[in-house]
Design brief:
The protein is 7% helix and 29% strand. By secondary structure, it is mainly beta. It has 3 domains: 53 residues, Laminin; 40 residues, Laminin; 127 residues, Mannose-Binding Protein A, Chain A, CATH 3.10.100.10. Strands 11, 12, 13, 14, 15, 16 and 17 form a 7-stranded mixed sheet that branches. The chain has a two-stranded antiparallel sheet with strand order 1-2. GO terms for molecular function: calcium ion binding. This is C-type lectin. Keywords: Disulfide bond, EGF-like domain, Glycoprotein, Repeat, Signal.
């Protein structure tokens, strides 16, 4: 704590007032200077800093172009910023719908197609599944579960069946399995996989979430993912 002390010495004639500088050696941070005054000591801060000890940044860390998506508001912090999201969105930059799951860096949701007449799960082809995901927005599609991090997040989703489709499909021209972004599927294949003659890729929690090829006509869930624009 910065203090200013007045010391009084009595002489025969009257009281003389002496002052003692009580500025500590270096109480001010970030290049600030300690200044003594009759009202007490204080820190004179260098440009870009503020606070009692010049400990706070006075610079607005929000970029000139708002980094927050979907109507989010940038909130200035100390050397960083955060996004305040509308109620219908979540995520570091408000990129994820609030009714999706964001357990890490991937925004995911499990969908199960149901019949509008019977209310029972039904089989859908890959294009129907893609359209169902795209119904949430132009930047939503079937999920690319491309690495261990994405797979770990997918394991946290609440499933309705033991078969879950992802975005990977077989490229007839390249003769390889590819994700929706055209990168090769080189991760998490089950024993003996992949096999040809089937156009879809899925995983089963009961089989340790490893990928296997599927003929696209088996009732199951599929995973939608929000991709950054």
């Amino acid at each position: 704590m910065l203090t200013y002390v007045r010391i009084l010495f009595q002489t025969a004639a009257d009281w003389n007032v002496y002052t003692k500088d009580e500025c500590p050696t270096q109480p001010c941070l970030n290049g600030g200077s300690c200044v003594s005054s009759a009202d007490g000591n204080y820190c004179s801060c260098t440009s870009g800093f503020e606070g009692k000890s010049c400990e706070l940044s006075a610079i607005n860390d929000c970029p000139a172009m708002n980094p927050c998506l979907n109507g989010g508001t940038c909130v200035d912090g100390q050397g960083t910023y955060s996004c305040y999201c509308p109620a219908t969105f979540q995520g570091p930059i408000c990129e994820c719908f609030s009714n999706f799951s964001m357990k890490g860096s991937h925004c995911l949701r499990i969908l199960t197609p149901y019949s509008t007449t019977t209310g029972q799960p039904v089989t859908v082809d890959i294009s129907t599944a893609e359209n169902a995901c795209a119904g949430y927005g132009a930047n939503v599609g079937l999920a690319n579960i491309k690495d261990a991090g994405a797979l770990a997040e997918a394991k946290l989703l609440e499933l309705r069946s033991d078969l879950v489709y992802v975005s990977a499909q077989y490229s007839q021209s390249a003769k390889v399995w590819r994700w929706q972004d055209n990168s090769n599927v080189d991760f998490n294949w089950g024993t003996g996989e992949p096999t040809t003659g089937r156009n879809c890729v899925a995983y089963k929690p009961s089989q340790n979430y490893t990928f296997f090829t599927e003929s696209c006509n088996t009732v199951g869930d599929f995973v939608c993912q929000v991709y950054l624009p």
